[in-house]
Amino acid sequence: MSSRKINISIIPRAHFRAYLTRSERFSCIVAHRRAGKTYACIQDLLARALTYKRPGPPTRYAYIAPTRDQAKDIVWGYLTAFCEGIPGVVANRADLSMTLPNGASIRLYSGDSYDRMRGLYFDGVVIDEPADIDHEAWAFVVRPCLSDYQGWATFIGTPKGQDAFYDIWKASANDPAWFSLVLRSSDSGIIPALELKSLRAGMPDYAYRQEYECDFTAPIPGAIYAEALDKAREEKRIGTLPIDPNALVHTVWDLGAPQQTVCWYFQIVGRYIRWLDVDDGGDETIIQRVARMRANGYLYGSHYFPHDALQTERTGRTLAMEFAAAWLKQNVEHTVKTDELRANMKFIPRCHDIWVGINRAKQLFPIMEFREPQCAGALALLGRYRTRPEKDGAKTSPEPIHDRSSHVADPIRYVAEAELAGMIAFKGASEPEWTYQRERRSRRGAAPQRVGG
Q: Model pTM?
C-alpha cells in the first residue's frame, strides 16, 4: 500500500506568526474586529491536526463557538475552504466535522450544548468568545477533555467589558507559561487608516474603543445593573462572604429549557440580601437540579417561582409539580411533608411591566451582597444584562435583550417583585414607590414610568 505525500502551504498574517509557532500550551488572543483571529486559529488547527503524531487513537480537535449558527456561518466556511484541495478529506456538514486523511478530526461545537463534549478527549481546542459561553463549560467539561493527551487550548475574542474573557486575558498576560496577544487596530495596520477614520466617525466612541481598540474598560451600552455592581464591589459587598448558619437559605428560579433554567440561592442576613450561589448551566433535568440542591446541605426556607411555573407543559404536568415530586423523592429522611413543601413554594404574580421589577431590584442593590467565587460567572453575565432601543409605532423605548444574561438577571428581578407583592420583606430596604396593594387601591392603576439602563 503506497503512501501519498501532501504538501500544505499555510501563509498567516505576520501578526499571528508567533501564535502559529508557539510552544506554550495555553493561549489568549484579544484582537480587534476583522483582524483575522478566527482565520489564524483554523490555520493552526489544520496544521496541527495534519502533522501531530502520538500513540493511541486518532487525534481530535475542537472549535467551540457560543452558538451552532456562529460555528456554521463563520468557522465552517473557512474550514471547508482550507480542506478543499486535500485528497481523502471526509466532510460531515450535519455534524460540522472534518476527518483528515491521517484519521485526525476537527469538529465544531456549540457552547450552548457543551455537555455534548463531556467524556471526550481533545488534543487541542479553540474557544471563541468564552464570555458568551457558560462559565462551567471550561472547568467542568472542556478542561478535563484535555487531560488524556495533555491537549492545548486557545481563547480568542474581542472585549465586551470586564467579564470572564477579561479575567482569562489578565491571567494570561501575567503568566509566562501562557501565550498572550493583544492586537489593536491602531497598532496592527490591518485595516486602512481611512477606513478606521470612517468607522470612528460613524459609531459611538465606546463602541469603537471596544471593537477596534480592544478596550475592556469601555462601558456596555444600555447595561442595566453594571453601575450597581461596580458600587457593590467598591463597597466590598462582593467577595468571600460566609454562609450564616442561623439563617434559612431561599431559592429563586427562572424557568425555561434545561440550559436556560437558573436558580439563585440567597439568605436574609440582618439588613442584607446575601446571594450565596447560583446554578445556571447544563442540560440537567429538574430531578438532577433538585438532587444537587439537597446535596448542598442547606437548611432551606422558601422557593420562589415565576407565575409560569404553574402552566401545564406538554407532559401534562407543571414545572411546580415536577419540582415538588423531585424534592419529595430526594427527601430520604421524610423530614418534609407534602403540605409543608407546598407552603414553602411561592409563586410570584405576573407584573404588568418588567421595569417595575427591574427598577425595584436597582433600589434593592445597596443591600445586596454576592459571594465569590460561587457567583462570579453569574455576576459577569449580570453586568452584561442590557437594553436596546425598540420601536413601537412612533415611540422608541429601551427593552431588555433576551439572552443568557437575562436568564441570570431575571431571578434578581423576581425577588424584587416578590417583595412588591408582600411575599418577602427586607429590613434594610427603602420604601417602594409602588406595590401590588397600592395599585389595587389606586383608581387609575397607572404604571410606573420606564427607566432604562
A: 0.62
